[in-house]
Every structure is written in structure tokens, then in C-alpha cells.
Write a structure and sequence with these properties.
single chain, about 140 residues, alpha+beta, 50s Ribosomal Protein L17, Chain: A, about 15% strand, globular
């Protein structure tokens, strides 16, 4: 039976919600702390925590599964761009590559010994100015 198994819809269409969660997940991976509303943070936690669990073991299968969850499709770099990237110039480097490197090189090893609960939601005191929505900060647990 599938009683109470539905996800939070956030008053958005499926494609909009999935795209929003992927973009928020990428932003969270790069900065490890974002400010958003409480329902969005709770929905984001369901996306981020499985990704961090995948990143704890760095292998090809887990990288491909993370690429699939984040819907990342990037092209191969040509030789000139590879040379620039090795020298430290990331202007031609795909931003999604940076997301994957951050996830598997920093976040995965950081939580290697932790069995779960990688994020924390801290509610802020005041509502948002325009619509008085309850806001919060979602961040990584240290």
C-alpha cells in the first residue's frame, strides 16, 4: 500500500519542482548553506541526503547515479580547454563539473563516518518581507 507516500508538491508542476530541486541542490553543494523557505528546505533535504550518501564512496557507479539525480549532461572538454583547466582557469570549465568535484571530493569524505543526518534546518525569526513566508537556513552539519 502507498498510504502517505507522496512528496511535498510545493504548489508547482512536476517539471518545475524537479528543476527547482536540482538547482537548489547544486547551489547547496557549492556553498553548503542556503536560505530558503521551510517547506522548500524540507523538500531539499530529501534530495541532498541521498546524494551525500552516494558521495561517501567515490566510484564510477555512484558518480553516474549522482549525475542522473542532478540531471547533469556535459560535453567532453577539448584539448585546449583541458589544458586551461589544469592550469587553474575554470572559465571554460563546466559549472556542473565543479558541482560533482565538490560533492565527491569535499562533502563525501567530510561525512564518511557519519551514518546520516547531514543537514540542519535553522529557522530565522522574521518572515520574508514580501509575503511573510517562514524562512530558514539549511546548512551542512559540521
Amino acid at each position: 500500500m502507498r498510504h502517505r507516500n507522496q512528496k511535498s508538491r510545493l504548489n508547482r508542476t512536476t517539471s518545475h519542482r524537479l528543476a527547482m530541486m536540482r538547482n537548489m541542490a547544486k547551489s547547496f553543494i557549492l556553498s553548503q548553506k542556503i536560505e530558503t523557505t521551510v517547506p522548500k528546505a524540507k523538500a531539499l533535504r530529501e534530495v541532498i541526503e541521498p546524494l551525500i550518501t552516494l558521495a561517501k564512496e567515490d566510484n564510477l557507479t555512484n558518480r553516474r547515479r549522482a549525475l542522473q539525480l542532478l540531471s547533469i549532461r556535459f560535453n567532453k572538454l577539448d584539448s585546449k580547454d583541458k589544458r586551461k583547466a589544469k592550469e587553474g582557469d575554470f572559465s571554460s570549465y563546466n559549472g556542473d563539473r565543479l558541482v560533482m568535484n565538490e560533492l565527491f571530493d569535499k562533502l563525501g569524505p567530510k561525512f564518511k563516518e557519519r551514518p546520516g543526518g547531514y543537514t540542519r534546518i535553522i529557522r530565522t525569526t522574521n518572515g520574508r518581507v514580501g509575503d511573510s513566508a517562514e524562512c530558514c537556513i539549511i546548512e551542512c552539519v559540521e
